[in-house]
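Q: Could you fold this chain for me?
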Amino acid sequence: MVPFLQIFKDKKYSSSFFKADCIAGITVGVILIPQAIAYALLMGVPPIYGLYACLIPLLLYAFFGTSRQLSIGPVAVTAILVMSGVSQLADPFTERFVELVLFVGFLIGILQVIMSVLRMGFLVNLISQPVISGFISAAAIIIIVSQLDQGLGIAIPDFKYTHQTIWYAISHFAEVNWITLGICLCSIITINVLKKWKRSFPGALTVLVITTSIAYIFDLNAKGLAIIKDVPSGLPSFSIPNMDYDTMVALIPSVLTVTFIGYVGSIGIAKSIEMKKRDHIIRPNQELFALGIAKVIGAFFQAVPSSGSYSRTAINDEAGGKTTVSSIIAALMVMFSLLFLTSFFYYIPKAVLAAIILVSVFGLINFSEAKYLFRLRRRDFIVMIITFLGTLIFGVENGIFIGVILSFVFLQYYSARPHIAELVNIPGTKYYRNINRFPDAIQSEVYLIIRFDNQLYFGNSSYFKDAILAYVSDRERLPEFLILDNTNMHDIDSTGLHVLDDIQQYLDGVGVQLLMVGTIGPVRDFLKRSGFTDRLGATYYYLTISDAVDHAENQTAKHKEIHEAAVQFNTKRKSFLD
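A: Sure. Below is the predicted structure, expressed as structure tokens.
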């Protein structure tokens, strides 16, 4: 339950590992501090809460997480999701808003812990990759637009739709504070140049120090440059978030969205590092517990919701981080800043914080994924684009909902109309393949071979029945045998069984014998329990198409053992629901 202890139980942790973790932790720490401040403002809370989120949550994940390089903390996508949901109940930067954000973090953590205990990590698979890509790309644009006021120095009203904010900024461009815009643009350029030179170099911190010094020396606040001003010093105190049932119900959409998106992002990052390093194993349900407990306990120490960061994780890895000790070092760096450096935060320009956010989210707009999906599979491309547009037009939570619903519509549509193929013999072989791919292969008048490539259930049973009857009736001369290849039929339900009975009765009525081939174990068990095996007769079950064809062509009697193997079944069920 505590993966951190396993690091030392293995007796592989050495002084060289500790040195590497210290270097990586310090590197991540100096990058984490400005990002935490920036993402706190993006979330709609004072900067101090972003720093608080880098203490208890980091320490708890270091003990309970299974990824040795994953760096958690405030991230842009989580910030905009929380901001979008909570801002419907309270105004950002108010005391009530902060209370709701902490409550959201607590609820997200509770849900993740419950999912971990119930081993429900698989539920994140309900969100497909095209939905995630479309959502994150749209969220990146929403985040970029949300920073226009800080980057341009214009007071932009809170609009409901993204395009309204863009139009307001364009129409009021004459009101731009050029000092603010200049600092923002120079910061973006400098951070990008430093990142290209050396990714692990703390470019954001360097720019933050330089611009803060300039703002202080030249008193740019008096010339219209917005600064963050007072940041309280000291460590967070223990406090219980304000909780009530009605508020919890109102926050459920935000909680669900952040829970799933945050976990999908975190586990995706952790898995990518696992594949690269191959020195540890990611356990999804343990990851859920680690991320959840970090939020639950973190909420009692005023930590806003946190998730895995791709950029900081990559930097942690590149800087040589070996274990989660590096996260502990990063947390100590933040602790030192809270105790001794907050007075230096007063003159940090909000424009440079906007630049840090903009640099972070530019790369989230995934043009390459859209082009790849357009070439690879158009329906996934459509899901991505509609999720993207839905998020931009209707908001982040509704965008996710639209994408998930559309994914399931496509899934149900194609599941209800699965692939069915007529198989024919490839001359000179014992192989049987789709006639549409091998039109010159031999089609027999004696038998018809059909392969059904899906489970047979209520959603596609009518399509299955219509297709089988159409294949039979389309023959100029009715075949003597219908050979049903079941090798790809991995499950069947009661509706599918009724359809199978109907097909058998129809075939009996027109004088066609049904032969069952390659029926897999779970389906054999079901057919035996239902009585269908006995109604059809065990002698009409075969292991291979070749055996069934041999019987159809030569009317040969097969050995009893062949049929017994083809109808072998287990009486024990896998679960109560079977």
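A (continued): The mean pLDDT is 89.
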